[in-house]
């Protein structure tokens, strides 16, 4: 007699379980892996050059975003608005290469730009379908700057979240030249007269 009662209880439990949906798994936001550490740059960079490379990383990231997310119009608006600042920063980056690699500076610069675009593209592949969702907002952020002159500082705030082709170490500050001895200054003044 116990068996039919037990079977009824089990049947009721099973029937009760099928009516209820299992609880949904907790939603966990996707956390991309940390950015890989780029290789060290072959030469130290002056503070203005470090800033120029931050701008280059931002520009490259926006370019990859535009291509990957079909936002070419946003990229074109960015370039048109910031053209003078972008050109100035590119010249500063060129001085880094021309100062350190006099014979092959153009090739070194082109290699850097290619490596930078590759690093940006690899990040897009890691993020997959979330890349556009996470990256398109950068266009709104950069276009919201009050003045184009704010672009370099803005780019510097993004350096931790943007892939870079090389890790740039700042050059040590150079010592100020020693003051000329008074006799040398007086002799120089006499020569001018």
From TrEMBL:
Residues 1-20 form the signal peptide. Keywords: Signal. It comes from the Bacteria. The keyword Signal applies. The keyword Signal applies. This is DUF1311 domain-containing protein.
């Amino acid at each position: 007699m116990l068996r039919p009662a037990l079977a009824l209880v089990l049947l009721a439990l099973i029937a009760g379980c099928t009516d209820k949906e299992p609880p949904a798994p907790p939603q966990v936001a996707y956390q991309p892996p940390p950015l890989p550490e780029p290789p060290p740059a072959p030469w130290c960079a002056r503070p203005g050059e470090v800033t120029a490379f931050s701008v280059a990383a931002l520009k490259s990231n926006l370019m990859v975003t535009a291509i990957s997310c079909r936002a070419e119009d946003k990229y074109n608006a960015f370039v048109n608005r910031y053209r003078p600042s972008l050109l100035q920063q590119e010249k500063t980056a060129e001085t880094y290469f021309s100062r350190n690699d006099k014979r092959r500076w153009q090739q070194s610069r082109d290699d850097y730009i290619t490596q930078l675009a590759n690093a940006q593209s690899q990040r897009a592949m890691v993020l997959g379908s979330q890349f556009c969702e996470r990256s398109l907002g950068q266009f709104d952020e950069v276009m919201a700057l009050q003045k184009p002159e704010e672009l370099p500082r803005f780019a510097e705030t993004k350096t931790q979240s943007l892939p870079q082709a090389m890790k740039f170490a700042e050059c040590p500050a150079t010592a100020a030249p020693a003051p000329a001895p008074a006799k040398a200054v007086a002799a120089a003044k006499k020569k001018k007269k």
